[in-house]
Protein: Glycosyltransferase subfamily 4-like N-terminal domain-containing protein
Organism: Paracraurococcus ruber
Amino acid sequence: MRVLFLCHNHPSLQAGGTEAFARSLFRELRDRHGVEGMFLAAVTAAHRERRPGTLLQAIGDAADEALLWLGHFDRFNLSQPDSYGLASLAPMIAALKPDVVHVHHLLQLGVEMVDLVRRAAPRARLVFTAHDFFPICAQEGQLLTTDRRLCPGPSLDRCLACLPGRSGADLVMRDLQLRQVLAGFDRILTPGEFARGRYIAAGLPPAQLQVMRNGIAAVPAAPPRPAPDGRRDRFGVFGNLNRFKGTLGLLDASRRLSAQGVAHGVALHGGLAYQSEDFLGEFRAALDVAPDARHHGPYAAADLPARMAAVDWVVVPSIWWENAPLVIQEAFLHGRPVLCGDAGGMAEMVRDGVDGLHAPIGDPAGLAAAMRRAAATPGLWDALAGNIRPPVTIAAAAVAHLALYRDLLARLPARRVA
């Protein structure tokens, strides 16, 4: 079987959960199941300069992984107007003759890439994983209003309120185009039931949508942090730090606990790349007034177990719904209960009072209350940690994806070439 993976970046350049999972899945299918193909990751000038003569660049020593340099992306329409550049890829895709093309995001690649793939590989089955809500939400795919309220789903009035600079016609045309593009996929995968429900509510056919859990590499778990006094009051946040991940709200929660005399520590593990000067200023100011919080900077995947060993709880303070955060899987792999928002993909993965605690999304006072309960309740950590279910492994995810690919190839009729 030959499979072409398309993603909006490469984990070696941008360590996001989608990129990490997509590349891990590709390698697992290749190394354990003999699947051939290519992992093609889109990049821009923010990650690599363009090289003359080709859109393709090597990445590391892997012969089956490459970077695709694409600029000029239109984020509102998820459109890549560099049609000449995209067309230059057609011979490579045709020569690969993929049986399956699995698109892990439309960012940078654009809706035009889907049409190119369909023409260059007309017999291939097309699979799309909706790792977030970009296709149904023009507000950065987060279903979060500009005044930071959770949005139940797209509607013309709600979208116009968030995007006053856009006309109703703009929004209608975006919706029609993306519906047409998504209709061309043989299967649309979501990492959880919540996301599937959001896409169904937005009007996509339920039969086209399938829950397929993301997986994580199985590594030895970090040991519990020594706590001779029995207190479990060390909190950690892992991953990119930004406004929508709730970084500022967590710092405010820590500040409140310090002011109340609650002994605790907050370790922020993650980088601040590509953040605005406004956010960086707010972050520095919030950190300055949270005396029990420390920023430890970015980290490599190999560093995670050692950093995880120094915390008791993992906090996921995101202010949007989220979908299937990799950090929750990482926390559970290492036996750490999770504090997270009380709705969306986070609440689906973390069971309140069972293997973690919920707090109101976007509410620093509510988050502080949950952290205080976690730190001050004897035996709570042991009870929650003992209920943690092992996350789906990348090996299991690969088996499930391979079964889907085979099913699509066996059951669906051959495509007609336009």
